[in-house]
Specification:
Blueprint (H helix, E strand, L loop, with lengths): L4 H36 L3 H21 L4 H17 L1
Helix pairs in contact: 1-2, 2-3
């Protein structure tokens, strides 16, 4: 257990930040699941309208460091290929 004042404060900060990071990661996963469900329904129009929102969401999360920027770009690229193949 932490025994200095600064260590106790650090632990408090880490726990708060962990909650924030988990929420952000959940938003990322939910956005991908929603897009994949739209693609599974073969609904190209809805997929194209949701694509900019997904792109924005992924880049926001990449900017905060929850996922890496190349990971976000790779996901967007793969989803765009899926949409074009519908």
């Amino acid at each position: 257990m932490a025994n200095t004042k600064s260590a106790i404060k650090t632990i408090r900060r880490i726990t708060r930040q962990t909650k924030v990071n988990k929420n952000r990661k959940a938003r990322f996963k939910n956005a991908l699941k929603k897009m994949n469900s739209i693609i599974d329904k073969k609904n190209k129009k809805d997929a194209l309208t949701y694509l900019p929102k997904l792109n924005s969401e992924l880049m926001k999360i990449a900017k905060t460091g929850i996922i890496k920027k190349k990971n976000a770009s790779r996901n967007i690229s793969r989803i765009t290929k899926k949409i074009n193949s519908i």
